[in-house]
Structure formats: C-alpha cells, structure tokens
Amino acid sequence: MMSAELEKHMASVQDQMSKAVEHLQHELLKVRTGKANPAMVHELRVNYYGNPTPLNQVANVGLSDSRTITIQPWEKSMLAPIEQAVFAANLGLTPMNDGEMIRINVPPLTEERRKDLVKQAKHMGEEARVAVRNIRHKYLDVIKKAVKDGTPEDEGKKKEAQLLELVNQHVEKVDKLIKSKEDEIMKV
User: Fold this and answer.
1) Does residue 129 contact residue 171 with C-beta atoms inside 8 Å?
2) Could you count the other beta carbons within 10 Å of the beta carbon of residue 37?
3) Across-strand partners of 70?
4) Residue that terminates a domain, selected from 74, 105, 136
5) Structurally, how many domains does the chain consist of?
6) CA 161 distance to own-chain centroid
7) What is the CATH number of the domain that holds 18?
8) Distance (Å, whole) CA 30 – CA 19
9) Phi then psi for 48, rounded to 5 degrees?
10) Which structural domain range is residue 26 located in?
11) Alpha helical stretches, state H, the chain
12) Whole-angstrom distance, CA of residue 94 vs CA of residue 12
C-alpha cells in the first residue's frame, strides 16, 4: 500500500519539476536576443475601455522582418493605448505609430547588454535549479517518513535513486536551455 502512495508522490514530483523547467522556458522567451520576437510584447496589458487587457486580445502581433515587431490593432482607437503600454513596459524599445499599425524596431545589442542578458538568463536558470532541488528535498522527507512508518528500507533507497535520476534529468534540461539561450544572445 505504501509503495503505491510513493509512486503517486513520484508522479507528482516529476510533474512539478517539469513545470519548473516549462516556467524557465517561458521566462527565457522574454529575454531579448537582438532578434525581434513577438513573445517580447506578449505579456503587455493594454488599457481597453478602462480594463487592462492582454495585447493579443486587441491586436495581431507579428514580425515584418527579423528586427521588426508589428502590432496591428483591430480598432484604430487602440493605437495610442498600445503605444503607451509599450512605453510603460520599459522594454527599451520605441514604438512607431504610422496611423495604421505600430512597428517596433529591435536594435542590435551592444556587447555589454549581451553580457547583462546572459547574466539574467543564468540567474533564471539558477532559480529553476533551486526550484527542482526544493521539490527533491520535500519528496526526500516523504520517503524518509514512509520508511519510518514501515516501508521496506530497500524500497526507500530505490525511490531515492529514482528521485536523484529525475533531479539530474531536469537540471540537465535547465542547463541545456540556458546554454542555448546564451548562444542565441551572444550570436551577433
């Protein structure tokens, strides 16, 4: 009976660790690389008749080339609020309103800015690793308690080995994501 309980916990642990890695992927999309990416403005909230509304619900966001994000509002009256939202987001990008759509040119990054962005990405990676380790720590307590409550010790050791394997897999995924983002940022 106890081993079924541990299996259920193990599935939950795997799910939580995967979510930590997914969260990192999502956060890394927001880090500029010198190339335009619609994800850079995805989180923007626009004042739509007094309600903060996600940008993608009031406009089409796309790319016209590798350095230009285009935002085509569904209503012309939304041009100014979208422009204000881009300024307010403090992305270091300047929106250009031509009366029809908003274009945002993404300037090439300076060497210093690239290094700052790599540091930022590495910090995000470290946060993800810490999250994975915290999940491991909680589950280790569950295993120890189960062994104390009568689960065979060798089964506890097996679960600890499985847990270590899971942690290693997820930390490796985090490392690959960070390395890939670093290469993307540093590529001129």
Assistant:
1) yes
2) 17
3) 62, 103
4) 105
5) 2
6) 29
7) 1.10.132.20
8) 17
9) -110, 100
10) 2-30+110-186
11) 2-29, 79-88, 111-148, 153-186
12) 44
Contact 45, 58 (CB under 8 A): no
Q: Which residues, 6+ apart, have CB-to-CB distance to 41 below 8 Å? A: 55, 61, 69, 71, 86, 89, 91, 104
Per-residue pLDDT of the chain (188 residues; tens, 9 = 90+): 467 888 888 899 999 999 999 999 988 887 777 778 888 887 789 988 888 888 888 989 998 888 889 999 999 888 889 888 888 887 778 889 998 899 988 888 888 888 888 999 999 999 999 999 999 999 999 999 988 988 888 988 999 999 999 999 999 999 999 999 999 888 86
Residue 121 in tokens? 């990405």
Distances from the Cα of 43 to the Cαs of 1, 29, 57, 86, 138, in angstroms?
Answer: 45, 11, 11, 10, 32
- Residue indicated by tokens 């274009």: 103
